[in-house]
């Protein structure tokens, strides 16, 4: 099935001993797409990823990797996936190159191709210097990169990484980010992370889950619009604030003062303006506020981060009541 | 079974770089060496009725109780503790292959260690110059017994390791199970609890499952297929339970 999406999950449910970890999740990921998987701790991210890899069986629902159902053809599906689990477990007493060789053989890379391919991934992940070191003696950053190298080793069409950048320093995060970005278009990648700017920079699309349910999905820009819905402007202004609302509504009817600070020694106060309109209002604001009676010191449009979206989306979903479970 | 040999060679290498293997080997050779020299001392004082090989294998249970837990405790328990079982089982390998590879590696080492005690008899033969001390029958029978009973003991060790993620718990469980199979069954055969009419089939079964009797039979040159079947079926059962143990833990992890 060459046209099947890389990952198709429909109505996935996973319960452990009566606790529902994943509750009716449906999503699909196109080929070559990079999907960010967000959610608070215990939201069901890792469980979903484990079901995708065929490590855990689903309670109900279906998962297809490149058109191959994981439940009925686990072996075929596992050949299509490179997986790096949470906390990146590695054997302590193997050398890096030995480990990669062993994993390559298990993933059915032919002996002839394996040697050059190991050199390639060592180069890609900047591991050449430690290739003969014992994994147990490596620092966290190196271990993390060994895990990433291992997951891309067999060049699978789908790569699943559970928190790949955890414990890395900013420089290493940059390397990993570039590495993941370089896979765009060639491999489908799902990464989960708590570092939201990471996801924002690398991912084409974001999926936010909470309490086992998808609460939002789309591109970071879509999510901002959908979840937050308003644009805000930060203004530092001196002058009579009581006449300001009429000035603002002349520019845009929905523009209003959301927050208002106290004036400082020079009479400037910080204001937060919010509007439902998405288009840029900077220029009309600048013109209106430079009128006599006002002194303007700063004006900027606030860019809500994915963090705000994440907080808003997960907070919103706490209020959502779960639908009645289907009776059997 | 495509990946079995990849896994097996990996497991053997992992056992060869692990400290617990060398501790097990040192203890094993120390104890067997001690037993062997004690036997030789007794022989040097007075002529004995049995051959040294027969006496040597009489104490087989002691090194087995020490060595088998040390060779097997790490196998599955460590994989689960570190979480590497997750990366292992998300490649196209089956649980059966993983368990069999671990079993194969531990058994290979077990046989190698016992095989190294053949050097004792070689030294004895070379320096005593007395062919009567090296009776081929009990010697071959004894080693055959060790090889066959080892199948079951190692399988029990792997099973114990599949039940816990703590190596110490796995080791104690393994030693207890082996002790139960060797001495528990012989105690049961001797106890009066099975004398009732209803329990006759149980008594019959227990009478067949006497590891110490099997050892005597083997060293006397009697190879009974019923005994072979006992070890083989026990091994298969323990391995099936190990595979189920690993998979059950996955379902409830």
How is this structure best described in words?
The complex is a heterodimer of chains A (328) and B (253). Helix content of chain A is 34%, strand content 28%. By secondary structure, chain A is of the alpha/beta class. A six-stranded mixed β-sheet of chain A has the order 6-7-8-3-9-10, with helices on both faces. In chain A, helix 3 (96-106) packs across helix 4 and helix 8 packs across helix 11. The radius of gyration of chain A is 25 Å and the shape is elongated. Chain B is mainly alpha-helical. Chain B has one domain. Chain B has helices at residues 4-16, 19-45, 52-58, 61-72, 74-82, 84-89, 95-116, 118-128, 136-163, 167-190, 200-208, 211-219, 225-251. In chain B, helix 4 (61-72) runs antiparallel to helix 7 (95-116), helix 4 packs antiparallel against helix 10 and helix 7 runs antiparallel to helix 9 (136-163). The relative contact order of chain B is 0.13. The interface between A and B is medium-sized, with 29 and 24 residues.
Produce a short descriptive summary:
The complex is a heterodimer of chains A (328) and B (253). Chain A has 328 residues and is α/β, with parallel strands linked by helices.
Features:
heterodimer; A: 328 residues; alpha/beta; Alpha-Beta Plaits; 2 domains; six-stranded mixed β-sheet; 11 helices; elongated; disordered C terminus; B: 253 residues; mainly alpha; 13 helices
The main sheet of chain B comes to: none
Strand count of chain A: 14
CATH topology of the largest domain in chain A: Rossmann fold
**Which structural class fits the helix and strand makeup of chain A?**
alpha/beta
Poorly predicted tracts of residues of chain B: none
SSE string of chain B, helices as H and strands as E: HHHHHHHHHHHHH
CATH H-level superfamily of the largest domain in chain A: P-loop containing nucleotide triphosphate hydrolases
Query: Which architecture of the largest domain in chain A does the CATH hierarchy give at level 2?
Result: 3-Layer(aba) Sandwich
Oligomer: heterodimer
Largest sheet of chain A: 6 strands, mixed
Rounded to an integer in angstroms, the radius of gyration calculated over CA atoms of chain A is: 25 Å
């Amino acid at each position: 099935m060459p046209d099947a999406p890389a990952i198709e999950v429909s109505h996935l449910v996973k319960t452990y001993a009566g606790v529902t970890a994943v509750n009716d999740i449906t999503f699909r990921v196109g080929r070559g797409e990079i999907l960010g998987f967000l959610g608070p701790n215990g939201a069901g991210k890792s469980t979903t990823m484990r079901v995708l890899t065929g490590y855990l069986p689903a309670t109900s629902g279906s998962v297809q990797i490149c058109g191959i159902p994981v439940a009925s053809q686990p072996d075929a599906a596992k050949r299509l996936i490179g997986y790096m689990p949470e906390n990146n477990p590695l054997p302590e007493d193997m050398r890096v190159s030995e480990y990669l060789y062993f994993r390559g053989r298990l993933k059915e890379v032919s002996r002839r191709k394996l040697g050059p391919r190991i050199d390639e991934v060592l180069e890609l992940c900047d591991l050449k210097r430690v290739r003969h070191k014992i994994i147990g003696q490596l620092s966290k950053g190196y271990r993390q990169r060994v895990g990433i190298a291992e997951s891309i080793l067999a060049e699978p069409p789908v790569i699943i990484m559970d928190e790949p950048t955890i414990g890395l320093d900013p420089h290493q995060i940059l390397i990993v980010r570039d590495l993941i970005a370089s896979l765009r278009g060639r491999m489908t990648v799902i990464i989960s992370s708590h570092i939201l700017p990471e996801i924002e920079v690398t991912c084409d699309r974001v999926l936010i889950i909470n309490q086992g349910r998808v609460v939002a999905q789309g591109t970071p820009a879509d999510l901002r619009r959908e979840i937050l819905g308003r644009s805000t402007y930060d203004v530092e202004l001196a002058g009579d604030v009581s006449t300001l609302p009429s000035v603002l509504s002349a520019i845009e009817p929905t523009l209003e003062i959301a927050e208002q600070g106290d004036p400082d020694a020079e009479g400037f106060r910080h204001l937060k303006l919010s509007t439902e309109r998405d288009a840029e209002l900077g220029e009309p604001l600048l013109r209106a506020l430079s009128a006599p009676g006002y002194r303007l010191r700063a004006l900027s449009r606030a860019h809500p981060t994915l963090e705000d979206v994440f907080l808003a989306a997960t907070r919103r979903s706490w209020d959502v009541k779960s639908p009645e479970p289907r009776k059997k | 079974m495509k990946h079995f040999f990849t896994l097996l060679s990996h497991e053997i290498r992992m056992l060869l770089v692990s400290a617990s293997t060398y501790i097990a080997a040192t203890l094993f050779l120390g104890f067997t060496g001690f037993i062997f020299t004690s036997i030789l001392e007794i022989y040097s004082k007075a002529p004995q009725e049995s051959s040294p090989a027969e006496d040597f294998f009489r104490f087989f249970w002691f090194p087995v109780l020490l060595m088998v837990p040390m060779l097997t405790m790490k196998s599955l328990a460590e994989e689960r503790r570190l979480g590497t079982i997750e990366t292992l089982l998300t490649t196209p390998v089956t649980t059966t292959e993983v368990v069999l590879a671990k079993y194969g590696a531990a058994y290979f080492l077990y046989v190698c260690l016992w095989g190294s005690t053949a050097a004792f008899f070689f030294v004895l033969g070379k320096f005593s110059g007395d062919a009567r001390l090296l009776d081929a029958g009990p010697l071959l029978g004894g080693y055959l017994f060790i090889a066959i009973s080892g199948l079951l003991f190692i399988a029990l060790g792997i099973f114990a390791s599949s039940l816990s993620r703590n190596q110490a718990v796995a080791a104690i469980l393994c030693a207890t199970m082996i002790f139960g199979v060797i001495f528990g069954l012989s105690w049961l055969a001797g106890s009066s609890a099975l004398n009732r009419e209803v329990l006759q089939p149980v008594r019959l079964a227990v009478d067949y499952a006497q590891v110490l009797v099997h050892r005597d039979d083997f060293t006397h040159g009697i190879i009974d297929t019923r005994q072979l079947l006992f070890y083989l079926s026990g091994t298969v059962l323990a391995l099936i339970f190990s595979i189920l143990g690993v998979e059950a833990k996955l379902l409830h992890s």
